[in-house]
Amino acid sequence: MHAIRLARAATGRDKIVKFEGAYHGLHDSALVSVKPHAPDYGDINAPTAVPGGLGVPKSAVANVLIATFNDLATVERRFKENPGEIAAIILEPILMNVGLCMPQAGFLKGLREIATKNGALLIYDEVKTGCKLGWGGASEYFGVMPDMICLAKSIGGGLPLAAFGTHRSVMDLISQHKVFHGGTYNTNPVSMAAGLATFREVLTRQNYAHVDKLSKKLADGYRQTIAKVGLQAYIAQAGANGALMLYPKEIRNYRDWTVVDVDLWRHYWFGMVNRGVMAQPYWWDEQWTISVQHTEADIDKHLAAFNDIAASLAKAQQERSERVPAEVAH
């Protein structure tokens, strides 16, 4: 919310571009097209802006332009349709409201070029990716630098903490009292102490090397089991994050994700939990996160649990695929 306000102040423009299926907080500024349903989609080449729920003003929706993740043409179209009106492009560098959807080669670089060419700011929402991809976040991981980043969750070490950063020339608008910035919970001393301890003691390059090693072992183990049992799925993995994606091929955007087999995912989730492993959080649009406290033994237990249920998942998937055509015909 603060980042978008600051981008608008720095550019003197009101509109922003966000991507269908992305979540950027509870505020009205971007609570648009978070999880739209099929009738509201519009053309994939020009997605419709849909309020994220009741109570979002029409004026707020009008200032949010929707593009398709991994499709630079849809972003270019929004800038051509709204010349000199777009303050910023905001995105998760990895779309993580749909499991884990990776940016295709050249996508982030293309966004950087579009934003620069049109005098707009590029904002990375790293509430999920920051701290989890590596010591330097998405900027280091992908080699594409935004104008602004937003961080939260991980940087607090379990306590509520968030931050955003940008160029000095933009941030100075706050110190010059041209942009209002405040909050009841700002500079909470306990959260700040937790944040400092997290950066100094937990998020070290040594710990990132440990997490990367475990993450690779987990992803490789999953892939071996998937290939062995013939499950139509793949593993998406980046840094500490990963997800079992129940699709025959890699998804590229939100609409690809919407056809996930929710029933099969539930079987996976309960099968893992019943074996003592919280493989992913409670929803099929989430992902797992490796902690610095995880060990090789934890990864072995995780993989053993998946190996125990994978053949049953593949069988259920096959039976479902054979049954669906008959249901469609009926």
Task: Write up this protein.
- The protein is of the alpha/beta class and 330 residues long.
- The chain folds into two domains: 201 residues, Type I PLP-dependent aspartate aminotransferase-like (Major domain) (Aspartate Aminotransferase, domain 2), CATH 3.40.640; 125 residues, Alpha-Beta Complex (Aspartate Aminotransferase, domain 1).
- It is built from eleven helices and eleven strands.
- The strands form three sheets. A six-stranded mixed β-sheet has the order 4-1-5-6-7-8, with helices on both faces. The protein has a three-stranded antiparallel β-sheet with strand order 9-10-11, covered by helices on one side. Strands 2-3 form a two-stranded antiparallel sheet.
- A hairpin with a 2-residue loop joins strand 2 and strand 3.
- The chain is globular and about 60 Å long.
- The C terminus is likely disordered.
Task: Give the key terms.
2 domains; 11 strands; Aspartate Aminotransferase, domain 1; alpha/beta; three-stranded antiparallel beta sheet; globular; Aspartate Aminotransferase, domain 2; 330 residues; 42% helix; disordered C terminus
Quick summary:
This protein is an alpha/beta fold.
Structural class: alpha/beta
CATH architecture of the largest domain: 3-Layer(aba) Sandwich
Count of individual beta strands: 11
Helix share bin: 40-55%
Domain unit count: 2
The CATH superfamily of the largest domain is known as Type I PLP-dependent aspartate aminotransferase-like (Major domain)
What order do the SSEs take from the amino end to the carboxyl end, as H and E?
HEEEHEHEHEHEEHHHEEHHEH
Q: Terminal Cα separation, in Å?
A: 49 Å
What is the level 1 CATH name of the largest domain? Alpha Beta
In the CATH hierarchy, the third-tier topology of the largest domain is known as: Aspartate Aminotransferase, domain 2
Q: For this entry, what is the oligomeric state of its chains?
A: single chain
Major beta sheet, strand line-up: 4-1-5-6-7-8
